[in-house]
Amino acid sequence: MEASKIGVAAKDGVVTLTGSVASYADKVTAERVAKRVYGVKGVANDIEIKLLGSAERNDTDLAAAALTALKWDASVPTVRSLVRWLI
Fold first, then answer.
1. Tens digits of residue pLDDT in 23-65
2. Which residues contact residue 47 at a Cβ distance below 8 angstroms, ignoring those fewer than 6 apart?
3. Which of 26, 27, 49, 75 minimizes the number of CB atoms within 10 Å of its CB?
4. Structural domain that includes position 67
5. What is the pLDDT of residues 28-38, one digit of tens each?
6. CATH at 13
């Protein structure tokens, strides 16, 4: 994580984090670190996640991935079996 890409502002024990990181794990880590500072009462985590080039996905990619995951999940009924059950 590049700490230089994270902005920190504090007022009355509330810390606001801004900027961008490359992963959700980095965002959570930044928040966890801020909460450990003495005197911090709360954290507003406004950090954005900006995925690195090839990891970025658009809405079409996400919809296709969700559909594939649902097709592979045996506990999710198919449309055909739902129609038979409803009739």
1. 899 999 999 999 999 999 999 999 999 877 666 778 888 888 8
2. 6, 17, 18, 19, 20, 21, 27, 30, 31
3. 75
4. 57-87
5. 999 999 999 99
6. 3.30.1340.30
